[in-house]
Design goal:
This protein has helices spanning about 15-20, 30-50, 65-75, 90-100, 115-120, 145-155, 200-205, 220-230, 240-255, 255-275, 300-310, 335-354; strands at about 5, 55-60, 80-85, 105-110, 130, 135, 140, 155-160, 180-185, 195-200, 280, 290-295, 315, 315, 325-330. It is an alpha/beta fold and about 350 residues long. A 7-stranded mixed β-sheet has the order 2-10-9-8-5-3-4, sandwiched between helices. A 4-stranded antiparallel β-sheet has the order 11-12-15-14, with helices on one face. A hairpin with an 8-residue loop joins β14 and β15.
């Protein structure tokens, strides 16, 4: 079976070295070899977050697991939570927080989060504010540092979703405005799906020390103990995924994080220009360095996706009510300018025939 070129908002295409690592023979999770691999992957994850290693975890699972782990570990029933929604994954945070008994209010934005509107709402008093850095359903890029500053000014903890941004945007956990952030292996880092990564502030750990985690597996505090010594057994980690994640993280730093950010910005600018020149409407008001979602103006998205599949390229349609009209193209990881341009040109050609 011929392999597809993935131009979706994750998972991404993998490098040859990452693919080779996935094909290596299995080793034991208690072996000295895996101990060193896990320690190195953890150190590289902390380096990418720019977070203290003692507050950084890797848990086998999806990005949603990283989201739910923070809620299950640190939120109390009745907490007032403000979820800022610029797409599907802001709604997901709100839904999970409600599942755990939080009192959730949402602010919905059709473009990026209006920080002044958040400031005004925070006057009503909240325990936690949550926002998505880049929502892959819309391609909207938010100024999460400013949102975090607003949350801190009003005494709230700030949770940020970095699933589609970590590794292709500027981010520094040490800025001091973040309390819990989470990401995943299969987006900008260009690893396979299956590893959730998170960083937690010392302030949140101390202030919520009396909270009883409502999950055994998704207990961030328990995983912090494993990170300090991977010989501590909690559950069997996904060995091939963590091995491949380690390789992908090494590749991030071999390219240079500044170079990687610059390259993704150039891709985002290219996608933005092309979509606008084609006469389509981006769902975001500015370029995103990882994904673009755009309205074709007609309900032909599924047909376009099927025709692209025949060309060996997988793209995504929209989410929700706009799905029949919207195409989403991801360009995280190792996407080149040529590959992105050819993908967009093929979409234009196919859409023009409909």
């Amino acid at each position: 079976m011929a392999s597809l070129v993935l131009m979706i908002p994750g998972p991404t295409n993998l490098s040859d070295d990452v693919r080779r690592e996935l094909s290596e023979p299995m080793i034991g999770h208690t072996s000295p070899e895996f101990y060193e691999i896990f320690k190195d992957a953890h150190a590289l994850t902390a380096k990418l977050f720019k977070s203290p290693p003692e507050g950084t975890v890797i848990i086998s699972g999806s990005g949603t697991l990283g989201m739910e782990a923070g809620i299950a570990t640190f939120l109390k029933p009745g907490d007032k939570v403000l979820s800022l929604i610029t797409g599907y994954f802001g709604d997901r945070f709100a839904e999970i927080a409600r599942t755990y008994g939080a009192n959730v209010r949402t602010l919905r934005f059709t473009r990026k989060v209006d920080v002044q509107a958040v400031e005004d709402e925070l006057k009503n008093g909240y325990d936690v504010v949550a926002a998505t850095h880049i929502d892959t359903s819309t391609g909207i890029l938010n100024d999460i540092k400013s949102i975090g500053e607003a949350a801190k000014a009003h005494g709230a903890f700030f949770f940020a979703d970095l699933v589609s941004s970590l590794g292709c945007t500027e981010f520094d956990f040490s800025d001091g405005v973040y309390d819990y952030v989470y990401s995943a292996s299969q987006k900008c880092i260009a690893g396979p799906p299956g590893a959730a990564m998170a960083a937690v502030s010392d302030s949140l750990l101390k202030s919520r020390a009396d909270v009883v985690p409502r999950s055994y597996y998704m207990n961030v505090r328990a995983w912090l103990k494993v990170m300090s010594d991977p010989k501590v057994y909690l559950s069997t980690p996904s060995i091939p995924i963590i091995r491949a994640l380690r390789v992908a993280l090494r590749e991030v730093f071999e390219e240079g994080i500044e170079n990687k950010i610059k390259r993704h910005k150039e891709l985002g600018d290219l996608a933005w220009r092309f979509v606008n020149e084609a006469g389509w409407r981006p769902l975001s008001e500015s370029p995103s360095p990882s994904v673009i979602a755009f309205d074709l103006g007609r309900e032909i998205a599924r047909d376009v996706k099927e025709q692209m599949l025949k060309r060996g390229i997988l793209i995504a349609t929209g989410i929700g009510e706009v799905a029949p009209r919207v195409i989403r193209v991801g360009y995280m990881g190792w996407t080149t300018v040529e590959l992105l341009y050819n993908t967009l040109r093929a979409i234009r050609d196919i859409a023009g025939l409909k």
